[in-house]
Write a structure and sequence with these properties.
Length: 41
């Protein structure tokens, strides 16, 4: 290889990044409480 971008590694990183991003947005909407005062600390 002549110092180029490793396409397999790049594809793996992009897929993992998209998966984590999508899961994060789904988690933000999952079982949303009535208000922030409903948090148990």
């Amino acid at each position: 290889m002549k110092g180029g971008v490793d396409t397999v590694a790049l594809a793996v990183v992009v897929v993992l990044f998209l998966a984590v991003t999508i899961m994060g947005f789904k988690a933000a909407r999952w079982r949303q409480g009535a208000s922030l005062a409903s948090l148990d600390e």
